Amino acid sequence: MIRSFLVIALLAIGATVSHAQQSLPSSFQAKTIHSPEAADIFVRWGGKGPVVVLIHGYAENSDSWAPLAADLMKDHTVVVPDLRGIGKSSKPEAGYDKKTQAKDIRAVVTGLGYDKTFVVAHDIGNTVAYAYAAMYPDKVERLVVMDAPIPGIEPWNEVLLDPRVWHFNFHGPDAERLVAGRERIYLDRIWNDFSGDPSKPDEATRNFFAATYAQPGGMRAGFAQFTAFSQDAKDNRIFEQVKLTMPVLAVGGEKSFGPLQAVIMRHVATNVREAVVTGSGHWLMEERPAETVLLIRNFLDSPDGRRAKCSSSG
Length: 314
Description:
Helix content is 41%, strand content 17%. By secondary structure, it is of the alpha/beta class. The model is unreliable at 1-19 and 307-314 (pLDDT under 50).
């Protein structure tokens, strides 16, 4: 009986561990870097080799990069900040336009003693990464953007007609009052609407991210990311006048943006590779991590950026 109990207990522990929220490698260092744009940016970094900056999106924080960070750290230096207002970064009242947040990222890169890097982004991180590449084009070796529109860049007006993007206009004091104590309900709607697999993100991941946004000021700062979209659109239309020339990999989930991601990036860049992750919705790191990591690694490691696979199978 004791032996049977131990077996059951070990199986239960194994199940718990296998469904635990993924986090960045424990070997990563951590610090907070002050941005001249009046924010304190929490960043973790580790590994060795060429520097890769990973910029997360909304309804997540930097821990969403766990599968990619664990792989890349074998032969890259991986830098993973929390965007202002999210995770362990400060939550100032202003500065949520993506041009300002690009300056935050630059402060992180130089604050750690680096200069030129690869940049990989997802969701609203795409807009921060685009602003960064447009403002510091000689500092970005290659750019990866994944499954999200860029305000002001076509077909932006069509994207705004999609009822699933209701949250772009859901902000302000009344929205904060409605969501207070109900952050998980609000975020579930976003996760569910854009997931190709209803079980992803899993329960542990949802609870983890919901708790980070439930921190004091978390939802106000989160909403501010969308409030800034009108300014982002104006800035991006100016950026668009000078095309990016570094190699760009545009990745879409088959059940989300798919090939549209590459269509968007071809408006702003001259050297775009297209990749579609079969079977995935928007949450690529949670839904198809192995396939997505392979796409990114192939693109970053190829001599000229041209050998990235154009699709992946689920």
